[in-house]
Structure formats: structure tokens, C-alpha cells
Task: inverse folding
């Protein structure tokens, strides 16, 4: 008896039905579809599975999930990310400021290294470093500076003793590709040269050294200063962007910034380049071929 009922149910699932659409007036057949109970259940199952899959995908891969109670607030998550980015930026600025202050202290004490450290350098015991120990040359230079009544933090701007042989022997590189538009003139207090160049042209270090300042000023825009050997300092002004931070070691020819027109004193894209030796300005054209 059970086998007969089961066979009858299987037969009902396989029974075919014809769905026909007729014209009500002419009884003309417009559309027909052959169906069975088995096909209908399969079709409904596929539709249900597709809807479930699309709904799950929309919840998982779109912000729609944040609107589900208990999952989390989408706006709150965005605020957390913004605060994290700001915290990282503040930490970087604090580290750069600490390095800058440390370098200023080293420059003031005469204890600054202008060579790039090797990868296999051994650790140095900080307790063994004596910042107050200076050689005879440093003592003589300090005495000379103290004896000058008109000396100021402007690196002795009005003084220029001509060319310096030790600087000429250092083989400085061209800082940027361009042409000179304004010459060095200490009478006009123009202690460098202006080199016109394309916007965002690479600005390169003229010599190996250590970055002692990378900042922004209202008059000269983005400025970077590098301390080289033999008490030589190079300055690069009006940049659009700086690539190095205070304390960074750079090689001659290494890109340190991009040409721009920042600062109130700039009238167009160019690089204002200066050289200073032992607190005195030098004419860059005496040491570099432009």
C-alpha cells in the first residue's frame, strides 16, 4: 500500500501541465508553457538561493552592514580613522621638531657629523660623548666670532671675503637645471642667485651633508638647509615640496625638494640658492658652473 502511495506521489511530481494564454474573443493561442510540479519547485529554489546570495553579498561587501543594529556605527568608524591619521601626523611633526632642536644644539656646540653613517656601524655609548670637547680650530673660530661686534644670526650677511680655496676644491654640483635670472649682489642684500626652472623640477643637494633645517617661512616659502664639511652650508628656497627631514643624511646629487614659487618674495617658479662658509655668504657662481 505504501509503495502505491509513493509511486502515485512521484507520478504527480512528473505530471506535466500546460500553461496557455488565449485571446478571449478568437481563442487564438498567444503563449504556452509546459510545466511540471518538479520544474516549478526547482525554479522557485533557484530564485530563493539567488536572492539570499545577493542579500548576503550586499551586507558583507557594502556599508549597508553598518545600518544593522548592533554591528557598529559607520560614522563613528570614520571618525576613529581620521583621529588616527591626525595622531600619526602629530607624531611625525613632533619627531621632526625633536631632531631639528637636537641638530641646532649640535651646530651651536660644533659637534656635527657631515658624513653618512655606514650600515654596519657599531652602537655608541651616549655617556662617552662629550659635547664640550672642541679642538683648537673650533676654539679659534669661536673667539673670532665673539670678537666681532656686528655678528648676528644672519650668518654675517654683509661680509664676503672673496673665494675660499677649500670650498673650490669640494667640487659642488649644480642644484637644478635652469638658467640664472638674478645674480648675487650683497649691496642689495641678495645673498644668492635665482635659477629659473620648470615647476616641480627636482632640486638636488650640491654636496654630501646633513639636513639641519627643513621648514616653511612666510617670505621664502619652503626652505631646506644642509650642513656640509668644512663649515659650508647650502640653502634652497621657494620650493614647492620638501623631501627630507632635519637630521637626514644626503648624498651629492640626491633629490631633496621640488622647484616651486612659495613665499611672498617669489615672483615665479625658481630656486633661490645660497652658499655660506663660516658665517659669510659666498657667490655660488664662483664655485659652480651654471
Result:
Amino acid at each position: 500500500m505504501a509503495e502505491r502511495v509513493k509511486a502515485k506521489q512521484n507520478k504527480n511530481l512528473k505530471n506535466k501541465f500546460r500553461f496557455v494564454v488565449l485571446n478571449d474573443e478568437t481563442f487564438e493561442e498567444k503563449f504556452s508553457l509546459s510545466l511540471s510540479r518538479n520544474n516549478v519547485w526547482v525554479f522557485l529554489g533557484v530564485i530563493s538561493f539567488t536572492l539570499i546570495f545577493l542579500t548576503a553579498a550586499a551586507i558583507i561587501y557594502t556599508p549597508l552592514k553598518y545600518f544593522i543594529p548592533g554591528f557598529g556605527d559607520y560614522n563613528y568608524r570614520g571618525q576613529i580613522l581620521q583621529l588616527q591619521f591626525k595622531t600619526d601626523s602629530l607624531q611625525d611633526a613632533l619627531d621632526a621638531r625633536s631632531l631639528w632642536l637636537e641638530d641646532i644644539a649640535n651646530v651651536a656646540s660644533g659637534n656635527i657629523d657631515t658624513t653618512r653613517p655606514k650600515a654596519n656601524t657599531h652602537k655608541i655609548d651616549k655617556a662617552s660623548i662629550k659635547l664640550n670637547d672642541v679642538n683648537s680650530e673650533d676654539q679659534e673660530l669661536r673667539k673670532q666670532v665673539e670678537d666681532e661686534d656686528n655678528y648676528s644670526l644672519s650668518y654675517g650677511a654683509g661680509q664676503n671675503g672673496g673665494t675660499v680655496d677649500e670650498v673650490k676644491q669640494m667640487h659642488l654640483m649644480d642644484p637644478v637645471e635652469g638658467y640664472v635670472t638674478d645674480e648675487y649682489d650683497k649691496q642689495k642684500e641678495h645673498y644668492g642667485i635665482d635659477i629659473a626652472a620648470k615647476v616641480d623640477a627636482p632640486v638636488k643637494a650640491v654636496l654630501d651633508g646633513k639636513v639641519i633645517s627643513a621648514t616653511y617661512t612666510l617670505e621664502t616659502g619652503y626652505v631646506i638647509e644642509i650642513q656640509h664639511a668644512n663649515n659650508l652650508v647650502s640653502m634652497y628656497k621657494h620650493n614647492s615640496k620638501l623631501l627630507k627631514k632635519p637630521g637626514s643624511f644626503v648624498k651629492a646629487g640626491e633629490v631633496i625638494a621640488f622647484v616651486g614659487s612659495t613665499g611672498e618674495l617669489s615672483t615665479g617658479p625658481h630656486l633661490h640658492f645660497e652658499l655660506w662658509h663660516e658665517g659669510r655668504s659666498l657667490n655660488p657662481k664662483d664655485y659652480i658652473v651654471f
